[in-house]
Amino acid sequence: MESGTREKARNVLKRIFMAASYDINEVGEPLELDFSAIGSEDALVVLCSDDPETIEYFDSMTYQLRTGDGDPVCRKLLFTLAPGVQTEDCIRWGADEFVRYAGQAALAEVLGQTLVLDFGCPAPVTRSKPAADFVPVVEEELEAGPELPHLPVQVTEKRASGIAGLHGSAKCRFIPYWNYHYVSSGEREVKDRLVSFDSEGTGAINAINGLKMEIDPDTIKRGAVPFGSEIVPARLVREDVEEQLVRDVIDRLTQRVRFRYEKGDAIFYEEKTLKPDRNNIQVDLEVVYVPVWQVRGGSKIVEVNAFTGEVLSMPMDEGVELL
């Protein structure tokens, strides 16, 4: 759904809920919702989208009102124009519902009446109308695991199973990575030619199998991981990883310099290999954990990166065989 179409749909839906005496509240980041509607007996969060992944994520989540009075669960209403969309846990409006309620809302406004919305299922809570400044929040885990530097889990278990295309059990595993930052300095001068070894870089090395990946330092969360997750121990020790990184930096910065000089009537060519000094290379290392959903369906196992939603082409550790 294009941004212009979504904005128009959002405005019409707001008028529909206002005609039904709901209080409308904007929903800020990080929740990718359009607005919340709070009534005397229930509360809803509303999403306008045709994107399958966004819809699947919305359908799998639980939203609550942070009221301090039991934090009731919100209904979820999806407006979509995409054909064939399937949902399990939200109210779905298409073009027919949109046209019907938009017309009824306009008539109710003209007649000074209150629009009655029929969602086809009873309200999950019955309570007095909450204050308009309450905002919906995603339901959080009641318990937390150990505190570790890690990438946050942004893909739910249900969504991971859908991405994997399997119906079965899923386990969240935190895979250790050596997150590194190196700085190289120094220079060499040969025959009036100056060769610099200044360099800087970052990256991450899987502490199980040694494979490399990129980790944005700004995405690292320092806190508790979800309760019940498996914390996989590192196999590669710091000293070995540091030594390998230094060797890689030296190999990458090594240069062959070829120059010519004259001696009498003769012209000579000489080639020298210049390497940075090991003492001029500094490496900082920290273990950072990457969350992975290990989804099992029968004899098949698929791993899904719980931060990016990417299906892994090879296992994060050496103990899993992908079929």
Give a short overview.
With about 325 residues, the chain is α+β, with helices and mostly antiparallel strands. It has helices at about 5-20, 50-60, 95-110, 155-165, 240-255, and strands at about 25, 35-40, 45-50, 65, 75-80, 90-95, 135-140, 145-150, 170-185, 185-190, 195, 200-205, 210-215, 220-225, 230, 255-265, 265-275, 280-295, 300-305.
Overall description:
The chain has 323 residues and is an alpha+beta fold. 21% of the residues lie in helices and 36% in strands. It has five helices and 19 strands. The chain has helices at 3-19, 52-60, 95-111, 157-164, 238-253; strands at 23-25, 35-38, 43-48, 63-65, 75-79, 91-93, 136-138, 144-150, 169-184, 187-190, 193-196, 199-206, 212-213, 221-226, 230-231, 255-263, 266-274, 281-297, 300-305. The strands form six sheets. Strands 9, 12, 13, 15, 18 and 19 form a six-stranded mixed sheet that branches. A hairpin with a 2-residue loop joins strand 18 (281-297) and strand 19 (300-305). Helix 1 (3-19) packs across helix 3 (95-111). The longest helix has 17 residues, at 3-19. The two termini are 36 Å apart.
